[in-house]
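Quick illustration, no need to memorize.
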Amino acid sequence: MALDKDYEYSKDDLDNHSDQLNPNNDTYWSDRGYDENPNN
């Protein structure tokens, strides 16, 4: 998600974006095609 300065993002939008960039979060791995973190 590219942040757009003309759009007011909701907390859910920002939380989802953060989750997608955080390798400690399951969403990060599922968005990359893994069922779970392969390092665990």
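The chain has one domain: 9-40.
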